[in-house]
Write a structure and sequence with these properties.
Distance between the termini: 21 Å
Structural class: mainly beta
Shape: globular
Helix content: under 10%
Strand content: 35-45%
CATH superfamily of the domain at 190-400: YVTN repeat-like/Quinoprotein amine dehydrogenase
Oligomer: single chain
CATH topology of the domain at 190-400: Methylamine Dehydrogenase, Chain H
């Protein structure tokens, strides 16, 4: 099967610390081949050696990340990638009870810890979760055979005695491996609505899946049984004020998990206190309980939620306009606030009428909890450096048509954000023919909503990231 990504120019972005600021370089551009579906999700594994991404055709592709030669521009060893494996994860289904078609589009991918020579990952569409095993097997060749192996040879082998019988010898070439893909488990028929969250537990035995009304806990070895830790289906229909929008498990404590809701609240639950987590151990509220303004509720809806990599007390959430950092030791308000799309606040009515207010932006955290990365409109990715809150805001504008790989094309704007652009003269005409600086910055009267990054992922072994365009 051919990879949905075709030729690539040089993966990801490298970061170099310089004078307290982080310096970003475009390291590689991965382009889809013509005819393949849009990329819907990307995810690095824990070691940062492999990157998995899924598309709308139900195909999961994995690439291996290595090290290239020293760059003459950045004077650092950049990453380079090569295809690892491509497989069909999901196919179209049909729900006969609801007369509803289920797309094969891959919505979620989560890596599990590596075991021996095998990599494990979970992939999910709207209703079904599958566990996949990718094993590296050395190629085998046999010598000293009892029959000729030459192509087209018809010579017969005559065995007259025991001395004429040869013992075949198996030779394994560990330098050349084949990747075997196996579907180990299928977790299905446990969600009546689209799956919005998937998070492996720290115990390496269980994982959680969530839809708007239910959170299930699965054992990786059991597919015919599932335990519902939260079930809002049992509540009254007129009392469902909070719909689940995402879930995240603690990286250190198997009993802790948190989920976000459409009213901007985050519920922290502990399975040690109760097996049924109907009442959260701690609640973080972004809105007042009696808030009734529709636009305010929609802009504060939690679209993504992540636990900190280094501390179980820190959580990060993304809503439509901002990124917030929460500390369980001070749950009354966010401890950090990073505006992402503040310039869109005056256009909320127009965005609501065009349904753009329901766009689902995700966030990702670096392995040391220093950098927060999330997508935005205008082909822009926002990165926030928590150690440098004054000048640690970065705006990366991806212009792959004009980009020269490894070119140090940076400039500092008035709002202390680094803009990654192609090295074009300021007098160059824009693609639409107007005499404006290109690429243009996002202004209040210039909002390109046709190109937006909704998915991103950090590599844990170094500060590499990867982003995908939801409309590319």
């Amino acid at each position: 099967m051919q990879s949905p990504l075709g030729q690539y120019d040089a993966p990801s972005c490298d970061v170099v610390a310089q004078s307290g600021r982080l310096k970003w370089y475009c390291n590689e551009i991965l382009r889809r081949i013509e005819g393949s579906g849009p990329i819907s999700v990307i995810e690095f594994n824990k070691e940062g050696t492999h990157l998995a991404y899924g598309n709308a055709d139900g195909i999961v592709s994995v690439i291996e990340i290595g090290q290239a030669d020293l760059s003459e521009t950045t004077h650092h060893c950049h990453s380079c990638s090569k295809p690892y494996q491509v497989f069909l994860s999901h196919e179209p289904e049909f729900d006969c009870l609801k007369s509803q078609a289920i797309e094969e589009k891959i919505n979620l991918i989560r890596w599990l810890p590596k075991s021996g020579l095998s990599h494990f990952l979970l992939s999910s569409n709207e209703r079904t979760i599958k566990l996949w095993q990718l094993t590296e097997l050395p190629t085998q060749s046999f010598t000293n055979l009892n029959f000729p192996v030459e192509s087209g040879c018809r010579r017969k082998v005559v065995i007259r005695s025991l001395s004429d019988i040869k013992v075949p010898v198996c030779l394994k070439n560990y330098g050349n491996t084949n990747i075997r893909v196996q579907n180990k488990k299928v977790f299905a028929r446990a969600h009546g609505f689209s799956i919005v969250g998937l998070s492996p537990s720290a115990d390496r035995e269980t994982f959680f899946s969530a839809d708007p009304l239910r959170i299930n806990m699965w054992n990786l070895e059991v597919t015919n049984e599932v335990f519902s830790v939260i079930d809002h289906m049992l509540d009254r229909l007129d009392d469902r004020s909070h719909l689940i929008t995402g879930i995240s498990c603690s990286n250190s404590s198997p009993s802790l998990f948190a989920y976000g809701t459409n009213r901007g609240s985050i519920f922290l639950c502990d399975t040690r206190s109760s097996s049924l987590c109907d009442h959260a151990s701690l609640v973080f509220h972004s809105l007042a309980a009696d808030e009734s303004d529709v636009l305010t509720i929609l802009t504060n809806s939690v679209s993504d939620l992540k636990f900190g990599q280094c501390s179980e007390y820190i959580m990060f959430s993304r809503d439509y306009l901002s990124v917030k950092t929460w500390d369980s030791r001070m749950p009354t308000q966010p401890v950090e606030f990073y505006p992402v799309q503040r310039h869109l606040k005056k256009h909320l009515t127009v965005l609501y009428e065009s349904e753009l207010l329901f766009d689902d932006f995700k966030l990702t955290i670096s392995s040391n909890d220093r950098c927060i990365m999330t997508g935005s409109y205008n082909n822009t990715v926002k990165v926030f450096d928590r150690q440098n809150p004054i000048e640690g805001s970065y705006k990366l504008i991806m212009q792959d048509e004009d980009m020269n790989a490894f070119h140090d094309a940076f400039r500092t704007t008035d709002d202390n954000t680094s803009v990654f652009v192609s090295p074009i003269s300021s007098s160059t005409s824009s693609p639409d023919g107007t005499e404006l600086t290109w690429p243009r910055r996002i202004h209040d009267d210039l909002i390109d909503i046709t190109e937006n990054f909704t998915r991103s992922s950090f590599s844990d072994n170094n500060i590499n990231d990867n982003t995908t365009d939801s409309h590319n």
